[in-house]
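A reminder from the course coordinator: this example appears on the midterm review sheet, so study it carefully.

Given structure:
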């Protein structure tokens, strides 16, 4: 996706990948390029608007569906329009109710055409195919049919030259196949009925959504939420029983430590809001920053990060920002005392001859011959590598943070999972990990660029560090 956004940015002769390029890249990856040459008549645009509106409205009215983030009636790829329903977090498994919701909003476009125009079009063919595939998997693979039970039907070999469908071996009888077809039909009819009930009850919202789509052609998540503010939600489904003899258990699952901490934090926040007087004035920026100061220390005053790290062999560090500094600013000197954790001592030159002499002594101490062919240039290479690996000793962190932007921002700024490579100060053993950096902007609301925080981590990583820092 980012590669596509970069290409779009380059084609427009821009220097920065902005939100518009990212948005277009997402659309291209998911639905294909926009068909600007495809001119649609007003009636066909209206059918498409109601069709996509049906998808979105059913998804928004259901209880187990992901949020609707975008709707468009601009043709892309082979589609005349599309509705984006994307989960807020990564998901690795799907529940039965979520699958039922997916089938229901897949049928929403077809149902909208039936209700409004009384004459469905071929535009729902792909939706019907997806819903049917989901229903069949629920019955034959996921064990979500009480008539079939938790049984895997069909032994798919997945032969690449025959195709998955041709290579699938049917290991069940004709009578079971008949039941499978009945169960698939029942699930599709149930999804069709749910979509019909939702769109009938929310016909006024559907009409408003279709009108907005005809006017704007594309709606984002905020605009969709505004239209759906008066939507009538669908009731929760009854608990599904895999068998009548297996009644519903009322004992809830255990609460993990993370869930308990999150619940207690929400309760405390709610109690604090209730205790606050109704005529209380909002906190000033300085008060808000002081209140949050206990969360994250000011980076320039306390340059210590909580780091998740692990030992690993590091054979090469490639960083254009510091490779030049290591060779030019610190590299060709012959003397000078160590600046310790220097702050801006750019005049200091790394004593390479001294490092080379020390490396020779180490080689002799461990029983090696420093004049052996493979080791002749080793002291020089080590000296050059040390000048780069420990370049952070002579970099001023405040210089990195000197560029700020006045965005009138007062909330916590947090950048997570910044990769770094450093050296353990106890044994000079290389290790790597990730750092999380957060800070509270000062009272004037100025912030620094996010890339500066990564640069800051790199400066501190290029110093001998305790691995548990």
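Designed residues:
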């Amino acid at each position: 996706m980012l590669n596509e956004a970069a290409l779009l940015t380059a084609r427009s002769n821009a220097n920065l990948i902005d939100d518009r390029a990212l948005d277009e890249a997402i659309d291209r990856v998911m639905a294909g390029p926009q068909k600007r040459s495809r001119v649609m008549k007003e009636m066909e645009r209206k059918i498409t608007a109601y069709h996509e509106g049906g998808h979105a409205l059913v998804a928004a009215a259901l209880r187990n569906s992901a949020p609707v983030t975008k709707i468009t009636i601009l043709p892309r790829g082979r589609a005349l329009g599309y509705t984006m329903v994307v989960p807020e977090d990564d998901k690795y498994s799907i529940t039965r109710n979520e699958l039922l919701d997916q089938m229901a909003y897949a049928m929403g476009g077809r149902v909208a055409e039936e209700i409004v125009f009384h004459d469905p079009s071929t535009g729902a063919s792909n939706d019907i195919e997806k819903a049917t595939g989901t229903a069949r998997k629920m019955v034959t693979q996921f064990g979500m049919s009480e008539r079939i039970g938790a049984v895997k039907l069909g032994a798919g070999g997945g032969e690449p030259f025959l195709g998955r469908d041709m290579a699938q071996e049917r290991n069940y009888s004709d009578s079971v196949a008949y039941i499978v077809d009945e169960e698939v039909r029942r699930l599709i009819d149930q999804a069709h009925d749910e979509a019909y009930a939702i769109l009938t009850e929310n016909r006024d919202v559907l009409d408003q959504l279709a009108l907005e789509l005809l006017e704007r052609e594309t709606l984002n998540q905020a605009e969709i939420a505004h239209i759906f503010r008066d939507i009538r939600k669908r009731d929760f489904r009854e608990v599904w029983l895999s068998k009548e003899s297996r009644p519903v258990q009322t004992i809830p699952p255990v609460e993990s430590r993370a869930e308990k901490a999150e619940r207690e934090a929400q309760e405390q926040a709610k109690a604090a809001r209730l205790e606050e007087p109704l005529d209380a004035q909002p906190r000033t920026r300085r008060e808000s920053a002081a209140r949050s100061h206990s969360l994250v220390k000011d980076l320039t005053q306390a340059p210590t990060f909580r780091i998740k790290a692990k030992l690993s062999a590091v054979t090469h560090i490639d960083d254009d920002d510091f490779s030049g500094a290591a060779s030019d600013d610190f590299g060709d000197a012959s003397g000078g005392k160590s600046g310790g954790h220097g702050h801006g001592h750019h005049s200091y030159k790394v004593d390479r001859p001294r490092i080379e002499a020390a490396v020779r002594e180490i080689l002799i101490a461990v029983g090696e011959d420093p004049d052996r062919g493979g080791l002749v240039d080793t002291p020089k290479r080590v000296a050059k590598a040390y000048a780069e690996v420990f370049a952070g000793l002579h970099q001023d962190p405040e210089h990195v943070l000197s560029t700020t932007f006045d965005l009138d921002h007062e909330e916590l700024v947090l950048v997570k999972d910044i990769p770094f490579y450093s050296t353990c100060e106890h044994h000079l053993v290389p290790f790597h990990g990730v750092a999380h950096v957060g800070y509270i902007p000062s009272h004037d609301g100025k912030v620094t660029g996010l890339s500066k925080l990564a640069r800051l981590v790199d400066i501190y990583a290029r110093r001998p560090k305790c691995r548990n820092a």
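Residues 291-346 have pLDDT under 50 and may be disordered. The CA atoms of residues 318 and 388 lie 10 Å apart.
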